[in-house]
Amino acid sequence: MLYVADLADIISGHGVTLHSFADDTQLYLHCCREDITTAATRLKECIMDVGRWMSANRLKLNTDKTELLWTGSRHIISQLHGYSPSIQLGADTVSACDHVRLLGVIISADLSLDGHVSVISSASFYWLRQLRRVRRSLDDESAAILVHTFVTSRVD
After folding, report:
1. Range 78-99 average pLDDT
2. What span, in angstroms and rounded, lies between the C-alpha atoms of 79 and 66?
3. Which residues are 21's β-sheet partners?
4. CA angle, residues 155, 22, 101, in degrees to nearest 5
């Protein structure tokens, strides 16, 4: 964390909020619907400064893993009529996604967890079907251990 402390100063200088977790960094910027183009430009300049800082410190900004999500209520998102500016980072263009994975949780543009619930439900039913296939070969104690492991472990 001490190594990347300068990064927080660079980001906050652009009026952007930072959240870091291990080697993952998220940038947040709040704007009104009318200011979406200005916000995209501000975010682009911030990311470019971050990229320059990373290059100077022998790090690499991985634009392949960079994702952009414009969020808001369903009403606000519908008023955008599919318009959401992309960000040009050098030779790469980062276009807005409908959803992103944030610390293992799938978040949609309308801030719902519908996609996350769908993925978790699908994975859960898959593993339940797998348990059903092997159930006849297991004694009660082994089956109970498998079910307990399934319920308490991460399924996605």
Report:
1. 78
2. 25
3. 24
4. 40
**Which of 108, 19, 18 lies closest to 71, judged by CA?**
108
Question: In the numeric block, which tokens belong to residue 106?
Answer: 């799938």
In degrees and rounded to multiples of 5, residue 93 shows phi and psi of: -110, 125
What's the one-letter identity of residue 61?
L
In terms of residues, how long is the chain? 156
- 65: tokens are 């893993």
Cα-Cα-Cα-Cα dihedral of 6, 21, 11, 4, to 10°? 10
Q: Indicate if the alpha-carbon torsion angle 17, 37, 65, 57 is positive or negative.
A: negative
Residue 87 is encoded by which pair of tokens?
A: 């960000």
Domain boundaries, the chain: 5-112, 116-152
Give the start-end residues of each E strand in the chain.
17-21, 24-28, 87-89, 92-94, 99-102, 105-108
Q: Each residue of 42-72: pLDDT tens digit?
A: 999 999 999 899 889 888 888 888 888 888 8
The phi, psi pair for 136, rounded to 5°, reads -65, -25
**CA dist., res. 32 & res. 12, Å (int):** 19
Helix, strand, coil % over all residues of the chain, rounded to 5:
50, 15, 35
DSSP 136: G
The C-alpha atoms of residue 45 and residue 41 are separated, in whole angstroms, by: 6
